[in-house]
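Thread amino acids onto this structure.
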């Protein structure tokens, strides 16, 4: 583990993602502590041997004293109150987050805490479960973790967040916020909507279809089992990018419907989908190719990281 990954970490929000991160870092020997407003969650975390508190002010004062990296791990709808608290109590701490949208978070932090240090993040990991009971210190093992990489991103701050992601077991994918949000809409947020549609249509007017349902229905609707309030917070925060992918989805389905009606064939959509799935399997099934020949802090390092990430490479240093 890189030495810089040993900087203390303060996690605000101990649900599936935040709690799993706290557990992984603490289990790795990193000084990690967290906050959650639910006393029951805090009690469960403490009972499992982790440092947690339901007192936000006390937690942030500890973060300020330790110069900890503060991880925002609450739903987007609760984020502004967290950023205000950080601004007022631990203004010099480096901020990152695990929220599934980046443009909206960056704009919120710029508005509420304009002098704050912030490098966004988004681990591409999760399950349909939530809460401390669902946390898993291996959740991020081998996962992709986007770390915001803009031309004005500070090299030391970027390295701190990237090394934290690596300490959690993830590969780092450098990306600009807007590019991340477009990608997340296509491969995460849009599937939540299509899963909801598939589940609703499959449920039908009787339980016959559900009794017959097997792997394709189970796998295609898994994320529909996520708590609705968590889904809404994620999807609605990325509404612009999601509208674009949703429009493309609708257009393709309409074209397939029309072709089926007029010619009896859905070949175009099925063939396109099969090719796309094969491309995904080729990338996901191979050992990630590392980003090479980039020294963080050298001229144009951010641009070169982004360029190589668009070729499916990841940062592993």
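Threaded sequence (317 positions):
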């Amino acid at each position: 583990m890189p030495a810089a990954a040993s900087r203390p970490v303060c996690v605000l929000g101990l649900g599936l993602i935040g709690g799993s991160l706290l557990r992984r870092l603490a289990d790795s020997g990193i000084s990690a502590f967290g906050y959650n407003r639910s006393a029951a969650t805090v009690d469960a975390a403490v009972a499992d041997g982790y440092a947690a508190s339901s007192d936000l002010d006390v937690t942030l004062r500890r973060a300020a004293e330790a110069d900890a990296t503060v991880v925002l791990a609450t739903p987007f709808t609760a984020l502004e109150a967290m950023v205000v608290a950080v601004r007022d109590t631990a203004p010099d701490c480096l901020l990152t987050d695990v929220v599934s949208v980046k443009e909206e978070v960056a704009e919120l932090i710029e508005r509420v805490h304009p002098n704050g240090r912030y490098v966004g993040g988004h681990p591409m990991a999760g399950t349909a479960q939530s809460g401390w009971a669902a946390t898993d210190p291996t959740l991020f093992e081998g996962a992709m973790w986007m770390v915001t990489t803009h031309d004005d991103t500070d090299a030391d701050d970027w390295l701190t967040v990237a090394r934290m992601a690596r300490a959690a077991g993830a590969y780092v994918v450098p990306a600009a916020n807007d590019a991340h949000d477009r990608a997340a809409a296509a491969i995460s947020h849009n599937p939540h909507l299509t899963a909801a549609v598939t589940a609703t249509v499959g449920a039908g007017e009787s339980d016959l279809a559900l009794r017959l349902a097997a792997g394709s229905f189970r796998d295609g609707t898994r994320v529909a089992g996520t708590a609705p309030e968590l889904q809404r917070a994620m999807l609605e925060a990325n509404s612009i990018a999601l509208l674009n992918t949703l429009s493309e989805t609708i257009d393709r389905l309409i074209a397939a419907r029309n072709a089926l009606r007029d010619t009896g064939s859905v070949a175009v959509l099925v063939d396109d989908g099969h090719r796309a799935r094969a491309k995904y399997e080729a990338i996901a099934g191979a050992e990630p190719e590392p980003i090479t020949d980039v020294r963080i802090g050298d001229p144009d390092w951010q641009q070169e990281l982004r360029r190589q990430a668009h070729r499916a490479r990841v940062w592993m240093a």
